[in-house]
Amino acid sequence: MHEYDEMALDILILGGGGAGLMAALHANARDPNLKIGIAVKGTIGQSGCTRMVQGGYNAVLDPADSLDKHFADTIQGGGYLNDQELAWSLVSDAPKLIAELERHGCYFDRTPDGRIYQKPFAGQSFDRTVNRGDLTGIEIMSRLKDSVVASGVTPLDEHRALSLLTDADGGVGGALLMDVRTGRFLAATATATLVATGGGARMYRVAAPSLEKAGDGMAMCYRAGCSMRDMEMYQFHPTGLVAGASVLTGSVLEEGLRGAGGLLTNANGERFMSRYDSERMERSTRDLVSRAGYQEIQAGRGTEDGAIFLDVSHLGADYVEQTFPGMTDRCREVGFDLAREPVKVSPTSHFHMGGARIDSSCRTNLDGLFVAGEDSGGVHGANRLGGNGVAESTVFGARAGDAMAGYVRDASRSSISVGQIEVAIDDALKPMTGNGGENIYAIRSEIEDLMWEKVGLVRDGAGMQSALDTLDGLAERHQRATVPDIREYNLAWQEWLNVDSILTVARLTAISALSRAESRGSHYRTDYPEPDESTPPYNVLMQQDGEAPKVWTEDVRLAKLQPVGIEDQSETRMRQ
Ligand SMILES: Cc1cc2nc3c(=O)[nH]c(=O)nc-3n(C[C@H](O)[C@H](O)[C@H](O)COP(=O)(O)OP(=O)(O)OC[C@H]3O[C@@H](n4cnc5c(N)ncnc54)[C@H](O)[C@@H]3O)c2cc1C
């Protein structure tokens, strides 16, 4: 028998980003007597990607804009794969959430006459992006954290969730947690559990999301029996910094630099975008520019360390330093002078559009399990518009909080068997007891290279099949990897657990990508380079079924907006 602590809650929230904090605040506001715990792998309000949001938050605030326009932009951007009910929830709640964030103390940039300033962002038919300079995420998370601290919600900083606890009927009743500082386990049982751990886009060689994210939430959901959707849909940003072993490698140099006239060149000095989109050049869409940069590097026209160049020096040093102070500072930290010289960049993995299948109250197919934010799929379809990510995390976090408060009022607490806690702890301790000798960091780096080359920006069936075989081998090696037998702040142990999640998410990504025999949105296959217009748009669904997932497709329910004809998806019409 293992030793572990116990905690009984009404609501357990996993993740302290925008979705987790908003859920805690909403559930607490609904019923301040509820026992709510928020377990965070990092620290509350200081970890995750919501804090990293630079660009801003999309919401319809101007009378000349409309929910229909924001909705149509979101669906067209998503290649018609979005769950339209979720997308409608996003656009219709976002304006309310901006007002709510202001009540929490957020101050957004203003126009001279005192209204909230809204800037243009790619893929939008109206300027609707709310921001606080290029530190919008810090503004939001700092204020939300203050409110959570004042609310009486139980904070569990540096507690990573390892697995969901299920009852005899397959419902979810909490999670096994680990205090990363001490290595002690904590079985937190709860009537309702929210997974809001922020997705898993760090399984690629170059990646932008916060360092602790490893797809834990998606892996836990899948293993508990939750249905997952469109896991193949990953967004890459065209310009991630390339700075050797620095943690800043992969961090985003914002799109505004290209918008302002930034040039992209390869190692031969060519403005390569002329080969891919001679009309829009560097101002082409995010997915096309990312793919072009990747193809240049793969074709040997990048630098030795796998980069191309972003050059804004011709815009004038004063202009660049004044307009992009954050980006200038970021480059300076790694020895580049953005205002005066070309800077090395590469496409960088940015956002996972796939995830757990939810309804508009964030419920899943498993009783007691709710999912919100980047761990869920469906809102963005095949591609996410800039500015819709933080809107998603706060809108659906709020919805999840409201729904869970209602759910716990009517539901009874699940009974969780002690046996599964023992098994989960055994699994977590495995690398401390084995003697296989494999190095966990080497395995992680091989997965990242494999996913980058075979299941990344440019894919094909043979490559993905071989990637799946290689992932099987890497999974076996992962089981043979060993880490020092130390519980306190054991980073190798944490990495072993990260790789466990990453392997699951990587497999689901490759299987789902193989099932989609077309190119659409962020998913590009050289063996199927066009969208399949012979069938209505469909989603790829997956659920655990023994060792391999059960995979099936379902036509998208085009409840509100649909392509005019399957042959011509460039125009749309609203259904009454
Ligand atoms: C560099 C960058 C810039 C971005 N800019 C924008 C932008 O301008 N506009 C926009 O709309 N979107 C932007 N996005 C996307 C946006 O940040 C995300 O869509 C959104 O913030 C995700 O919110 P979340 O609450 O789901 O997750 P996050 O905010 O990422 O929070 C996840 C939380 O879960 C915790 N966690 C992880 N694993 C575990 C575990 N096992 N147990 C417990 N806790 C765990 C983390 O520590 C963290 O607290 C950007 C993303 C990046 C990477």
Explain how this protein is built.
The protein is α+β, with helices and mostly antiparallel strands. Among the domains are: 235-350, Flavocytochrome C3, Chain A, domain 1 (Alpha-Beta Complex); 432-541, Fumarate reductase/succinate dehydrogenase flavoprotein-like, C-terminal domain (Methane Monooxygenase Hydroxylase, Chain G, domain 1). The protein is 36% helix and 19% strand. It has 15 helices and 21 strands. Strands 1, 2, 6, 7, 8, 9 and 16 form a 7-stranded mixed beta sheet that branches. α1 links the parallel β1 and β2. α5 (216-224) crosses α15. The longest helix has 25 residues, at 491-515. The chain is globular, with a radius of gyration of 23 Å. It starts with a strand and ends with a strand. Bound molecules: flavin-adenine dinucleotide.
